[in-house]
Amino acid sequence: MGEEPIGLDSAVIDALAGVTTATLTTVLLKKGLRNVWLRGAMPLGPVDHGRKIGRAFTLRFVPAREDLATPASWGSPISTRAAIEAMPAGCIAVVDAMGVTDAGIFGDILCARMNKRGVAALVTDGVIRDLPGVLGTDLPVWCRGTAAPSSVTGLTFVAWQQPIGCGGVAVFPNDVVVADADGAVLIPAALLDEVIEAAVEQERLEGWIMTQVDEGRPLPGLYPPNDENKARYEAWCHAQKG
User: Fold this and answer.
1) Fold (CATH) for 10-189
2) Is residue 55 packed enough to be buried (19+ CB in 10 Å), middle (13-18) or exposed (0-12)?
3) Region 176-189: what's the mean pLDDT?
4) What is the DSSP letter of 39?
5) Contacts of 235 (CB under 8 A, 6+ apart)
6) Residue 124: is it exposed, middle or buried by C-beta count within 10 angstroms (0-12/13-18/19+)?
7) What is the pLDDT of residues 191-209, one digit of tens each?
8) Is the pLDDT score of 145 beyond 70?
9) Helix%, strand%, coil% for the chain, nearest 5
10) Is the full-model pTM beyond 0.70?
């Protein structure tokens, strides 16, 4: 319907698999991006699905309008059902539900189909319905919670693969989303390579700092490191490579 989805290189997924969303927010902050954490999108259920990485496949709802938001609309060419059939394997479905918490955007059948298509995760600022069934599909979900009423009680589905706002964050199709226990973070597609490079290095540095904390060293001058500790860190990196 909108922009064509593109895949994500396995090397990118492997690199980001070792980077927390907390680290990503810090790296993006250093690049001037403060609004990248999708508010309200938190892990659903007791199962820890680990860290999920994928290109954003976007879906957009607007407020419910009685002549459009009806059960009959579920069979329309412009529907969540049609959007799911356009989702490529490995994508993360990012859904703008306007933060509405009294209308479940997806239930167990739709989530089961997404899982069957190989969708990596569902991320939304709204809620889902049919909680036991959704958990049974094994589709990783980040959302605000659950509600029994269907989507059309409060929302009208209008488009997919177009720019959206999710949790107060501007998400464009094929941006990269990373989701873990702290929530979901957006990486603009154009910044992906430089963010990965900086984030991998930040994780390496913080890993070394943690070893120093474990040894009893005080934080001033260590986190962030002063010139002396930078030199110690660089010597450690050199030794690791050797």
Assistant:
1) Glucose Oxidase; domain 1 (3.50.30)
2) buried
3) 98
4) T
5) none
6) buried
7) 999 999 999 999 999 999 9
8) yes
9) 35, 25, 40
10) yes
Mean pLDDT of the chain: 95
Rg (CA), the chain: 20
Non-local CB neighbours of 2 within 8 Å, separated by 6+ positions: 58, 159, 160, 161, 162, 173
Say how many CA atoms lie within 13 Å of 157 toward its Cβ: 29
Question: Strand, helix or coil at 53?
Answer: strand
Cross-strand pairs, 157 = 61
User: Whole-angstrom Cα distance, residue 28 to residue 46?
Assistant: 29
Residues spanned by CATH 3.50.30.40 within the chain? Answer: 10-189
Answer for the pair 94, 123: CB distance below 8 angstroms, yes or no.
yes
Question: Which token pair is 3?
Answer: 């922009």
Q: Is the peptide bond before 88 cis (omega within 30 degrees of 0)?
A: no
Question: What's 117's DSSP letter?
Answer: T
The count of residues in the chain is 242
